[in-house]
Amino acid sequence: MNGSAVGPDGDAGDQHDELPALSSAFRQRIRPVLNRIDELRSHGLQSDLKLPMVAVVGDQSVGKSSVLEAISGVEFPRGTGMVTRCALQLSMQWNADPEAPWHGRISYKDVNGHKVDKELNSPGEVDGAVREAQQRMTHGDNEISSEQIDLAIKGPDVPDLTLIDLPGIARYSATGGSGIAQITKSLIAKYVSQPQVLILVVVPCHQDIETVEALSLAKEADPQGERTIGVLTCPDMVNKGAEQETLKIANNEKIPLKKGYVMVKCRSPEELNNGVTLAESVANEAAFFKTHRHFSQLPEQSVGIRTLADKLTEELFESVKRNISTLQNDILEMRKKFQEELQRLGQPVAETKDEKRRYLFEMLSNFNKDVAIATQGEMNARFHLYAKCRKHWTELGKQIHRAWPGWVTRGHISHYWQPPEQVTRLITDLRGRELASYDHVFPIIERIYKEEFLNKLKQPAEQFLEQVSDEVTDVVHLIAQKVFGDFQDIFEVVTETSNEEIAKVLELARADLSGRLFLQEARVFSQDSQFQERIAKIEEDLYKDNGNQQPPVPDSAERIRRGLEAYLQVATERLSDTIPQSVLYFMFDVVSKQLGNRALDLLSESESAETFLSLLREPRHKTARRKQLKEMMEQLRLAQRDFNKFRL
Fold it and tell me: Is residue 305 within 8 Å of residue 235, measured between CB atoms?
């Protein structure tokens, strides 16, 4: 790919005839201002400042990229269909050193919002890099992205200029249907509606200009045509007999624009296939307009890429002049706003050890206090662990009730119920020398209780423990964020230390459940009065269910069922309380105590204290923002200086 070799004094040397002389006048007159504008844009200030630029618009596949290529000397992706699928901002900067290497950088956000920043080492990489960017910014070849590609290049063979290549207006897409047109129109309108943007509308000569949607869109954004230049392409494709109509358009007679039209002949697909260079294309274009039977009648100021480039130079010059006062006022306002933000950021954190120690001790004390309040369940606590965990122990209670063997529940059986096979088998297997109906039922009740009820509670209890542990961890992190949020390094140390302590207590709680509580509950026990109360209530209900008549004398299976139901009532009430009590004791009380001790240890342990104190420094985001603000304020100061010179 070739580029302009025009020097700062307008000399192009041996390559003067190869490419447009856009940069010659441009550098001499407004290069410092446009360079400064590019610097403002590189610092992300284009959304706040009305920075002049050139936007190229047109219907799909009308040669927009060819026009940009001819003006800038930078090759853009070409092809049929939807080639340009997002806005591409090309910022070019001329390097006065003729021996300086060409350098480029492309940046964009992919479909996942990840920032991509890639160095380019040669002009030949631009085409592929842009195509790759468009692929990564969209989900398919017919999708339009609202994001923008930023392509910056610098070298001795490029002009000082910023161009915006916008997607062509597609009337219909095989996958996107007619809606694709509205998407592209909205994207184009976002740019061309800005009053400082110069609009280049590309219109192929062989197309009915009345149907060119890009021209209609430009008129909506620029009704008076003060910012619009018509660019007529493909004059070699005009049908015979239609030349006079095309001349009327070129002479600004059919659909007049205040800034008129320029007819250009860029490289055709055939010339591209034959390897015609940009330099040869310039010569071919000159010969075409000199010898064409009809278009040779057009004045020199209406044809050719050089004419378009000169016209563009003048219009950019005028755009800068029109917007310079507004830019200066906006810069003053932005400098004031940035200065106020710098003041709000305040001074960096003090550096002396004593001041750091006092500051850290106060923060750690606040952290411990907030954790204690959260675990004590006080009303109106900002971080209320009881409120967060109540749903978990409520669900645990329901799971304990659901763990009952289904055949035990009195409401699901009749007086003539058939006991389940495991009950009948146990009665038979465990019967010794007892007489019929005088067998001992307690061992069977105990065995069924353990195997069919208690063992089923271990998984829900473990799950409840994990849920409470997660809630505690989340709340501790929130408290740490509140107290240490401005000090990322300290926040990370405190949360990591908290995670370690919570993990240790979690293992203690887990051991207590399995090693104490469930072993303890495996011993079937109840106060006689409590158990007998429940047996009496069960028999009373059976009496009522039997029409207030004494039910049949219970057999062994029925006595097992009644005894198991009574004891399950006792155990369910007890376990619904003791499991949460055990978990809350460890995960609330023990965690709070351990965190309080461990947090203060960070300052008292001689080995870790120095390291911990060293972490108390300016928060990263504040440091970065302060640096960014200072850099932007410096750029704004330099821009204001150069704009003042330009006005003179």
Answer: no
Which of 78-82, 86-90, 543-547 bottoms out in mean pLDDT, i.e. has the lowest?
78-82
d(CA 487, CA 615): 8
What kind and span of H or E run contains 224? none
- Residues spanned by the domain of 606: 353-617
d(C-alpha 413, C-alpha 575), whole Å: 26
Q: Based on the number of CB atoms within 10 Å of its own CB, is 416 exposed (0-12), middle (13-18) or buried (19 or more)?
A: exposed
Q: According to the model, what pLDDT value does residue 15 have? A: 37
Distances (CA, A) of 264 to 286, 304, 443, 447: 10, 5, 103, 97
Choose among 242, 277, 228, 283: nearest CA to 56: 228
Q: Structure tokens of 532?
A: 């007998």
- The DSSP code for 587 is I
Are 455 and 449 contacting, i.e. CB atoms less than 8 angstroms apart? no
Burial of 421 (0-12, 13-18, 19+ CB in 10 A): exposed
Strands 261-263 and 228-233, how do they pair? parallel
* CB-based burial, 247-282: b 16+ in 10 Å, e otherwise: bebbeeeebebebbbbbbbbbbeeeeeeeeebeebb
CB 147 within 8 A of CB 137: yes
Is 284 domain-assigned?
no
In this predicted model, what pLDDT tens digit does every residue of 128-187 receive, in sequence order? 899 899 889 987 766 778 788 888 888 876 666 677 888 888 765 545 555 677 778 888
Q: Answer whether 261's CB lies under 8 Å from 228's CB.
A: no
Cα 178 from chain centroid? 29
Residue 266 predicted with pLDDT over 60: yes
**Does the residue 458 lie in any domain?**
yes
Per-residue tokens: 129: 């890099």
338 touches 632 (CB < 8 A): yes
CA angle 231, 237, 238 (to 5 degrees): 80
Q: How far apart are CA 534 and CA 548, in angstroms?
A: 19
Residues 319, 222: Cα–Cα separation, whole Å: 14
Q: Is 470 exposed, middle or buried (0-12, 13-18, 19+ CB in 10 A)?
A: middle
Q: Dump pLDDT digits (tens) for 1-29.
A: 333 333 333 343 333 344 444 445 455 55
- In a domain, residue 218? The reply is no
CATH number of the domain encompassing residue 503: 1.20.120.1240
What phi and psi values does residue 171 have, to the nearest 5 degrees? -75, -30
Residue 84 lies in a domain: no
Residue % of the chain over a pLDDT of 90? 29
In this structure, are residues 6 and 73 in contact, taking their beta carbons and an 8 Å threshold?
A: no
Distance CA 517, CA 525 (A): 13
Quick one: tokens of 383? 């971080």
Q: pLDDT category, 435, cuts 50, 70, 90?
A: low
pLDDT one-digit tens code per residue, 567-598: 999 999 999 999 999 999 999 999 999 998 88
In which residue are the tokens 């320029």 written? 262
Number of domains in the chain: 1
Closest by CA position to 3, among listed 14, 15, 11: 15
